[in-house]
């Protein structure tokens, strides 16, 4: 007896992502922010950013899901045979977010090497500093931040609910897989 294939809808994937943000991204982002504002440590900031960035592709390559996807009973599989994805496919799926990671590292480096950073001694001061920094109005940085959104909107026009990053990687997200 063959099991029915149910493709994960946008709202199911969004809820899974929000769970991942709360459980994984928020604590690592706060640790990164602490290392920038109070320790002025580029190495620690990059480490926490890298851990956050590596979580999704590694979890999906090893298990087929992130914590959020597991809670929502979703799994990333190869399109066609529904077999587990490999690391290469997982990294291809991650491309929109990888560009944000590299842009963030660039911004962190620029911020921490700016003489004005010496006066930053609180999160509020850092947020103000960031808004006034020369990179705050950079069009390329702004466009990079929208790459995941651009990828995700493809879900609405695809019968298999694939985002652009799924199409590039040859993957689909299934329910109860």
Automatic annotation (TrEMBL):
Keyword Transmembrane: yes
Principal subcellular localization: membrane
Transmembrane segments: 21-39, 45-68, 94-112, 139-157
Keywords: Cell membrane, Membrane, Transmembrane, Transmembrane helix
Species this chain originates from: Neolewinella lacunae
Superkingdom of origin: Bacteria
One cellular-component annotation, GO: plasma membrane
Pfam families noted in UniProt: RDD (PF06271)
Protein name: RDD family protein
Protein location: Cell membrane
UniProt topology in membrane: Multi-pass membrane protein
């Amino acid at each position: 007896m063959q099991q029915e294939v149910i493709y994960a809808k946008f709202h199911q994937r969004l809820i899974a992502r929000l769970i991942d943000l709360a459980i994984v991204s928020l604590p690592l982002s706060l640790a990164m922010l602490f290392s920038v504002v109070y320790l002025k440590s580029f190495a620690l900031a990059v480490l926490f950013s890298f851990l956050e960035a590596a979580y999704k592709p590694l979890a999906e390559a090893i298990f087929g899901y992130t914590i959020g996807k597991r809670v929502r009973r979703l799994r990333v599989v190869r399109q066609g045979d529904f077999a587990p994805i490999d690391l290469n496919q997982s990294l291809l799926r991650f491309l929109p977010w990888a560009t944000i990671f590299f842009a963030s590292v660039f911004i962190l480096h620029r911020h921490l090497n700016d003489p004005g950073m010496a006066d930053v001694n609180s999160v509020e001061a850092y947020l103000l500093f960031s808004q006034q920094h020369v990179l705050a109005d950079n069009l390329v940085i702004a466009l990079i931040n929208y790459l995941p959104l651009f990828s995700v909107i493809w879900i609405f026009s695809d019968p298999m609910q694939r985002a652009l990053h799924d199409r590039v990687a040859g993957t689909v997200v299934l329910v109860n897989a």
